[in-house]
Automatic annotation (TrEMBL):
Residues 110-120, 159-168 have a biased composition (Basic and acidic residues). It comes from Nicotiana sylvestris (Wood tobacco). Residues 200-255, 302-361 form a coiled coil. Residues 413-428 have a biased composition (Acidic residues). This is Eukaryotic translation initiation factor 5B-like. It comes from the Eukaryota. Residues 88-181, 396-428 are annotated as: Disordered.
Length: 428
C-alpha cells in the first residue's frame, strides 16, 4: 500500500506516518504525546526527528473533528485526550519528565552517587516500553498479497522490573507513577494500533472497490469512445451520400427543365397545326354551303321550267327533249356536286385522322427520343423503346396509307369530272 501511494505521489516517499495522519489525525496526536512522554522513541528510524517535527506540526494544524468518511470507528480527539487524562491524573499540572529532573537535583544535592546508579532506573524504565522497528512497521502495508489478514505490530517482551534498592527510598514513588503512566500508555498504544489495523483493512477494501469502479469507468469510457468514432464515421458517410444525392438532384432538375422546354416547343407546334387544320375545315364548310345554295337555285330553275312546260302545253313534245336533257345535266351536276361534297367530307375526316395520327407520331417520336436519352445515361429502358418504335411504325404506316387513299380518290374524282355531257344516255 505504501508503494502504491508512493507511486501516485511523485517526488515524495509515502511513509507510515503519512498513512496514520491520512486516516486518524487524533490517533497520531496521541502517538506524538506518548512519544513526548516516553524517554525512548517509539519508532526507530534515521529520519525520526525530521518526520516527527513535520508530522507533529501538520497534526497540530489539523482540526480534531477532521476524519475521512467511512474509515475507522468514530473516536474524537477529545475522547482520546480525556482517556489519557484519566490514566494520568497528575499530568494536568506538570509532566513526569520535569519531576524526574527535580528529583535528580535533590539527589545530587543530598549525596553524590555514581553516574551508573543514576542511569540504572531510567534504563529499567525504558526496557518496560514496547520497541518497534521501522522495518516491522513498514511490513504492514507491504503485504498486499494477504489483503484479508490484519497486520499487527509485534511487541517485545518486557523484562520484569527490578525491585528498588533500600538505599534509594526517594525514587520509588516517581518510579511507580512512571510505570503506571507507561502501562496506560502501552494499553493506549495497543488500542491505537488495533484501531489503525481496522482502518487499514477498511482502507484496503475501499481501495479495491475504488479500483474496480475506476476500471469499470475506464471500460465504459473506451466503449463510449469507440461508439463515438463509429458514429462519426457514419456521419461522414451520410454527408458524402447527401452530397451525391444533391448533385444527382441538380442534374435531374436540369434534365427535367430541358425536357419541359422541348415539350413546350412540341405543344406550340401542334397548336399551330391544329389552327391550320381548323382553318381548312372552315373553308371546306363554306364551300359546302355554296354548293347547297347552287343546288337550291337549280331546283328552282327546274320548277320554273316545269311551270313553263305546263304553260306551254303545245310545245311539250318539242321542249321535252330539251327538258330531259336539262334534267340529265342537272342530275349529273347534282351527282357530281354530291360526290364532291362526300369527297370533301371524307377528306376532312381523313385530314382530322391524319392530324391525329401525325400528333400520335410526333408524340411517339418525342417520347422515343426522351427514352433513348434516358437509356444513354445508364437506365435500362429497352422494352419501352421497342414498344414506342412499334407504335411509331404503325402511325407512319397509317399516315402513308391515308396519303395513298387520298391520292387515289382525287384521281377518281378527276376522271369522273372529265366525262363529257354528250355521253350521258338519253331517255326514250
Amino acid at each position: 500500500m505504501l508503494r502504491y501511494f508512493s507511486s501516485k505521489a511523485e517526488g515524495l516517499e509515502f511513509t507510515l506516518n503519512h498513512l496514520i495522519r491520512l486516516y486518524r489525525p487524533q490517533l497520531f496526536r496521541g502517538l506524538i504525546k506518548l512519544q513526548h512522554q516516553s524517554s525512548k522513541a517509539l519508532f526507530a528510524s534515521n529520519d525520526e526527528d525530521k518526520y516527527r517535527g513535520w508530522m507533529s506540526r501538520c497534526c497540530l494544524d489539523t482540526p480534531c473533528g477532521h476524519r475521512p468518511r467511512g474509515l475507522g470507528p468514530k473516536i474524537s480527539c477529545i475522547g482520546v485526550v480525556s482517556e489519557m487524562r484519566q490514566a494520568l491524573p497528575e499530568e494536568e499540572t506538570e509532566s513526569p519528565i520535569p519531576k524526574m529532573g527535580k528529583d535528580n537535583k535533590r539527589k545530587r544535592a543530598s549525596k553524590p552517587e555514581d553516574p551508573q546508579d543514576k542511569k540504572a532506573p531510567a534504563q529499567r524504565l525504558r526496557k518496560k516500553f514496547i520497541h518497534v522497528d521501522v522495518d516491522s512497521v513498514h511490513q504492514f502495508p507491504d503485504d498486499e498479497e494477504n489483503e484479508g489478514e490484519v497486520s499487527t505490530l509485534v511487541p517485545r517482551t518486557r523484562k520484569p522490573v527490578e525491585a528498588a534498592k533500600p538505599s534509594e527510598p526517594e525514587t520509588s514513588p516517581h518510579g511507580n507513577k512512571r510505570r503506571s503512566s507507561l502501562n496506560d500508555a502501552s494499553t493506549l498504544f495497543e488500542e491505537a494500533h488495533r484501531l489503525f489495523s481496522q482502518a487499514i483493512t477498511k482502507f484496503k477494501a475501499e481501495l479495491s472497490q475504488c479500483e474496480a469502479e475506476l476500471k469499470k469507468s475506464s471500460d465504459e469510457e473506451k466503449a463510449l469512445r469507440l461508439l463515438c468514432d463509429q458514429k462519426e464515421e457514419e456521419i461522414k458517410d451520410l454527408r458524402a451520400d447527401l452530397a451525391k444525392a444533391r448533385e444527382n438532384e441538380a442534374e435531374l432538375d436540369k434534365q427535367v427543365k430541358a425536357d419541359c422546354n422541348r415539350w413546350k416547343e412540341n405543344i406550340d407546334w401542334l397548336v399551330a397545326d391544329k389552327v391550320d387544320a381548323l382553318a381548312q375545315l372552315a373553308s371546306a364548310e363554306t364551300q359546302l354551303r355554296g354548293i347547297k345554295v347552287t343546288n337550291l337555285a337549280q331546283a328552282k330553275k327546274i320548277k320554273e321550267l316545269e311551270v313553263k312546260l305546263t304553260e306551254a302545253g303545245a310545245k311539250i313534245a318539242e321542249a321535252r327533249a330539251e327538258v330531259e336533257r336539262t334534267n340529265a345535266t342537272t342530275d349529273k351536276t347534282i351527282n357530281v356536286y354530291l360526290r364532291y361534297a362526300e369527297a370533301v367530307q371524307t377528306e376532312l375526316r381523313e385530314a382530322s385522322n391524319r392530324e391525329k395520327r401525325s400528333k400520335e407520331l410526333a408524340k411517339c417520336q418525342s417520347w422515343r427520343e426522351t427514352l433513348e436519352e434516358i437509356h444513354a445515361r445508364g437506365f435500362d429502358l429497352t422494352e419501352e423503346i421497342t414498344q414506342i418504335r412499334e407504335l411509331e411504325t404503325n402511325a407512319r404506316f397509317l399516315i402513308s396509307s391515308d396519303d395513298e387513299d387520298s391520292a387515289n380518290g382525287s384521281e377518281g374524282r378527276e376522271d369522273e369530272d372529265g366525262v363529257p355531257e354528250e355521253e350521258v344516255p338519253e331517255d326514250a
